[in-house]
Design a protein that fits this description.
Largest sheet: 4 strands, antiparallel
Strand order of the largest sheet: 4-5-1-6
Number of domains: 3
Helix content: 40-55%
Strand content: 15-25%
Distance between the termini: 34 Å
Length: 373
């Protein structure tokens, strides 16, 4: 609840990056000069080193200035601030029974920490990076951040860049930055490899040297459409991130070998790769074009049922339920809580209540009785 309330405050920041695809779109709009330096900064141990007191002050100020806050909640800014302060209090209990209290910094693992850290960093950047009175403001051509990773384009000398980073590290002793600059006109950032070429920034897929190339195996007990979705997602990423054809072909060839080694049928892998070309080309052509598609007799799912996945059976049941406008989402467990399906009864009774059980064939009804009750 609190995370949903303050997320928009983080997302409206000038340096905010939603994801890799958003970052790619931003890079496509940038023109660079020959002597510009591309680099990245990393906020060292960001969450535990964010000053809580100042963060709460900044968040409270942003809440007071947020005109859309009343559309998300009826709570007042001061009430939200008090709840935020309580929610980030963290205690740790050790094996010997001792209890430790985290005196400062945001707790790692709590969803509220991400937007709070982002809001503080936006304030930090606005005051010390984007400030018109800053000596180094004129040198910053481009500056975007995702959590603790910052990508920038610097127009100036490397000495001035190092002086700028040294200045930032002297502002808040807990908030420290490490610098990495391009090597041979190339810099990795997130999962993107960025290259300088003729006044533009070209990209391709980047993997860390420690990447194991292991993905969920084809024989794993998961729905096949989900397994296939892993491959399709990585193929889509390759088409979006690779600007040069040779990089795209190399990435697709790697994906082919990797997924075959992970047990995926070779014919299915090749079919997916071959079908990706017209699909991704169409996506690229229609990107940014507002389309009005009229779908007849499409009213969405009548109900979505959560049930344990049973290999070889759930796929057929899913197809049967789809014809009845019912979705089936795999979930571990023998019965589902009320929050998931609207009533605290097993799948068979859920289907009966929706007048769907009798519409399934005999084999599916008997299997439901065997697996789901």
């Amino acid at each position: 609840m609190l995370t949903d309330i303050i997320n928009p405050l983080d997302e409206k920041g000038d340096s905010y990056i939603k994801d890799t695809y958003h970052f790619k779109e931003l890079l496509a709009q940038v023109d660079i000069e020959k002597d510009d330096i591309i680099g990245s900064l990393d906020v060292v141990g960001m969450f535990p080193n964010i000053p809580v007191k100042k963060t709460l002050e900044v968040v409270n100020e942003e809440l007071r200035n947020d005109k859309s806050l009343r559309l998300r909640t009826e709570w007042k800014p001061q009430d939200i601030s008090r709840l935020l302060e309580a929610s980030i209090e963290t205690c740790f209990k050790t094996m010997d029974g001792k209890i430790y209290f985290q005196r400062d910094g945001l707790p790692i693992g709590k969803s509220i920490s991400k937007p709070m850290a982002g809001i503080y960093m936006h304030w930090f950047e606005k005051k010390y990076v984007f400030n018109e009175e800053s000596t180094f403001k004129k040198n910053i051509v481009f500056w975007k951040r995702q959590l603790d990773d910052i990508f920038f384009i610097w127009r100036g000398t490397k000495h001035d860049l190092e002086l700028f980073v040294w200045t930032l590290n002297g502002i808040e002793h807990k908030v420290q930055f490490t610098l990495e600059v391009e090597k041979d006109n190339y810099l990795p950032f997130l999962d993107v490899g960025i290259m300088k070429a003729e006044g533009k920034l070209l990209t391709k897929v980047y993997r860390k040297p420690t990447h194991t190339q292991q993905y969920i195996n084809w024989v794993s007990n998961h729905p096949k459409n989900m397994l296939l979705g892993v491959l399709k997602g990585l193929v889509h990423r390759a088409h979006v991130l690779c600007d040069r054809k040779e990089d795209l072909l190399e990435e697709l060839s790697l994906l082919k070998d990797v997924f075959i080694c992970n047990g995926y049928p070779e014919t299915l892998v090749l079919k997916t790769l071959n079908e990706s070309w017209p699909k991704e080309t169409l996506k690229a052509v229609l990107k940014g074009v507002k389309q009005e598609v009229e779908v007849e007799n499409s009213t969405g799912y009548f109900e979505v049922l959560h049930a344990p996945y049973v290999k070889g059976f759930s796929e057929g049941l899913q197809r049967k339920l789809h014809r009845l406008q019912v979705g089936l989402v795999p979930k571990t467990g023998e019965t589902q809580p009320a929050a998931d399906i609207g009533c605290s009864i097993p799948l068979k009774e859920s289907l009966k209540q929706a007048d769907l059980y009798s519409k399934l064939d005999k084999s599916h009804r008997s299997t439901i009785s065997r697996y789901y009750i």
